[in-house]
Design brief:
By secondary structure, this protein is mainly beta. The chain has two helices and 16 strands. The protein starts with 7 loop residues before the first strand and ends with a strand.
């Protein structure tokens, strides 16, 4: 295209690489690109396939925003809820493509975090480990250790990679 004064295409936010959302809430993802004059914004799967609206599941709004609606576990579709997408912006200045954006739905389900049983004699060091179910491990981080609702070592768990620092028993 010939370059016209006042025409442009640009990324508003090209740092979006992953969007993780709760299946009970859904998500709205704006296209990270824009232009002047207004650009036509379109969403695609990372394979290059056009995406299409699926009533009450996935919709691309006229302003280029991709919306994935809340859904039940039985309505999960990896093609929609666990896939890579990208957005394009096109106007008289040309066409740009966003980086791939990983979109992943997670299910809210009950889980229990517990402390691994340890034995130690009084006066010795004991190391405790926080056990988090693998299904939620990447979404949960330890922010403090508590005994009888009193914080023992605030913030040490997250810095120590889900382990608390040793302390005397």
């Amino acid at each position: 295209h010939t370059e016209d004064v006042g025409t442009s295409l640009y990324f508003v936010n090209d740092s979006i690489q992953q969007v993780t959302f709760s299946s009970t809430v859904g998500v709205v993802i704006p296209c990270p690109a824009a232009g002047s004059p207004s650009a036509v914004l379109r969403w695609y799967l990372a394979t290059g396939d056009d995406i299409y609206d699926v009533p009450h599941i996935r919709h691309v709004h006229a302003n280029g925003t991709l919306q994935l609606y809340p859904f039940s576990p039985s309505a999960f579709n990896s093609f929609i809820h666990d896939n890579d997408y990208f957005c394009t912006a096109e106007n008289s200045a040309g066409k740009i493509r966003s980086p791939n954006i990983r979109v992943k739905a997670v299910f809210r389900e009950p889980y229990t975090v517990r402390v691994e049983d340890q034995r130690s004699m009084r006066g010795n060091v004991a190391v405790f480990k926080c056990l988090i179910p693998s299904s939620v491990q990447e979404y949960v981080s330890v922010v403090s250790w508590e005994k009888d609702t009193v914080s023992i070592i605030p913030g040490k768990g997250a810095a120590a990679g889900k382990r608390c620092d040793p302390w005397n028993t």
